Q: What sequence folds into this?
């Protein structure tokens, strides 16, 4: 019974955290390649984390593909 209670609590907490995300299909559709960082932040809000890389003295933000929401 105690394990079932913990699993239910974890599920509820997880769902409540995901519900707060500003990355919705509607917001994603507002983004385009020519936008400045400030414009993207205005739509999606401040990032919760940031990464940078440094390879052979060259540093910058990692670049990757965004998986389209379906």
A:
């Amino acid at each position: 019974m105690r394990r079932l209670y913990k699993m239910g609590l974890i599920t509820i907490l997880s769902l409540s955290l995901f519900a707060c995300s500003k990355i919705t299909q509607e917001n994603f559709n507002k983004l385009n390649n020519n936008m400045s960082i400030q414009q993207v932040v205005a739509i999606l809000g401040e990032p919760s984390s940031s990464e940078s890389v440094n390879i052979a003295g060259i540093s910058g933000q990692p670049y990757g593909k965004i998986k389209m929401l379906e």
Notes: Strands lie at 53-55, 58-60.
